């Protein structure tokens, strides 16, 4: 098993691609801690993982809350004595706001998508370092590499921040035995918070830009996360995997 006994935190792991990833990591032997704000979906995901023979627990939290991060990380550390992997997956979409100049949307996107990831680093990296190392996988997007007219600029900016925050962590913490990489999904099933990008006509138009001419599946993203979270990628850090059917190859 590729994640045997690895103590793993995953944000947004209750639902969507994070849920699929949490299940895959647990199936590969990880002890999965799901950090999510969804009080109903979190326990459901844990029950599914346990029914499949995996290990998981749910911590209800908002990734923008530094004190909540500190408390949960301390709890996990006390329970296991270490943290091996962190997957920063929680995020909100920028495609429900048609006004690119809406400041409230900018602040919300930067807060959840970028600051939420930074808080994950800030709270777990010292513990990983103390334990001799760890791996971090941050979920960015194709939107973190190129601009798009169907999402609020805050989505592109926040996902671009995730991309470079990852490379920065890789450089700062290689000496601590910590690797950090990002995954950049392309056109996937819509997010809970999607607007325009959930509209079938808009999605069809976006699909014309995808060389493989199909949408991605959450499991295809989960497998990239598994590779980067596991020792299979032991010499890979500061890197990025585009799971996008070729979208960024243009
Ligand atoms: N779906 C796509 O097309 C797509 C494409 C590229 C990148 N992504 C990125 O992949 C990640 C997962 O997206 P998804 O499609 O599964 O979305 P989703 O909306 O289905 O799931 C997001 C999860 O994050 C959680 N979350 C959101 N805000 C949170 C907060 N403040 N605190 C705690 N948990 C929070 C939600 O509760 C949910 O469980 C996101 O970072 C997203 O930006 C998605």
Would you write up a description of this structure?
- The chain has 250 residues and is of the alpha/beta class.
- The chain has a single domain, classed as 3-Layer(aba) Sandwich (Rossmann fold).
- Helix content is 43%, strand content 16%.
- The protein is built from seven helices and seven strands.
- The protein has helices at 16-27, 41-51, 66-80, 103-130, 153-173, 200-207, 218-229; strands spanning 7-11, 31-36, 55-60, 85-88, 134-139, 178-185, 240-243.
- A seven-stranded parallel sheet has the order 3-2-1-4-5-6-7, sandwiched between helices.
- α3 packs parallel to α4.
- The chain is globular and about 50 Å long.
- The chain starts with 6 loop residues before the first strand and ends in a 7-residue tail after the last strand.
- Nicotinamide-adenine-dinucleotide binds at residues 11-12, 14-18, 36-38, 62-64, 89-92, 112, 139, 141, 185, 187-189, 191-193.
Uncertain stretches of 5 or more adjacent residues: none
Question: Rg, please?
Answer: 17 Å
Question: Can you tell me the overall shape?
Answer: globular
Total number of helices: 7
Task: Find the structural class using helix and strand composition.
Answer: alpha/beta
Any ligands, ions or cofactors bound here, and which? nicotinamide-adenine-dinucleotide
From the coordinates shown, what is the CATH architecture?
3-Layer(aba) Sandwich
Distinctive features:
250 residues; alpha/beta; Rossmann fold; 7-stranded parallel beta sheet; 7 helices; binds nicotinamide-adenine-dinucleotide
List the helices and strands and how they pair.
Elements: E1 7-11, H1 16-27, E2 31-36, H2 41-51, E3 55-60, H3 66-80, E4 85-88, H4 103-130, E5 134-139, H5 153-173, E6 178-185, H6 200-207, H7 218-229, E7 240-243
Parallel strand pairs: 1-2, 1-4, 2-3, 4-5, 5-6, 6-7
Helix pairs in contact: 1-7, 3-4, 4-5
Bound molecules: nicotinamide-adenine-dinucleotide.
């Amino acid at each position: 098993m590729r994640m045997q006994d690895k103590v793993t935190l995953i944000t947004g792991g209750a639902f969507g691609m994070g849920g699929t990833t949490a299940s895959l990591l647990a199936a590969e032997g990880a002890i999965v801690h799901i950090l999510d704000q969804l009080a109903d979906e979190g326990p459901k995901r844990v029950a599914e993982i346990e029914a499949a023979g995996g290990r998981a627990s749910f911590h209800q939290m908002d990734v923008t809350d530094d004190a909540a991060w500190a408390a949960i990380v301390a709890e996990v550390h006390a329970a296991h004595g270490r943290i091996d992997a962190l997957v920063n997956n929680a995020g909100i979409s920028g495609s429900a706001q048609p006004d690119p100049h809406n400041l409230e949307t900018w602040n919300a996107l930067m807060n959840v998508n970028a600051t939420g990831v930074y808080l994950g680093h800030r709270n777990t990296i010292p513990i990983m370092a103390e334990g001799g190392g760890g791996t971090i996988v941050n979920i960015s997007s194709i939107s973190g590499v190129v601009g798009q007219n169907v999402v609020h600029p805050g989505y592109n900016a926040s996902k671009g921040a995730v991309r470079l925050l990852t490379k920065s962590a890789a450089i700062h913490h290689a000496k601590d035995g910590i690797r950090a990489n990002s995954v950049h999904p392309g056109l996937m099933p819509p997010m809970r918070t999607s607007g325009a990008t959930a509209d079938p006509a808009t999605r069809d138009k976006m699909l014309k830009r995808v060389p493989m001419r199909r949408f991605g599946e959450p499991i295809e993203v989960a497998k990239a996360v598994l590779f980067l979270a596991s020792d299979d990628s032991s010499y890979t850090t500061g890197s990025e995997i585009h799971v996008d059917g070729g979208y960024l190859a243009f």
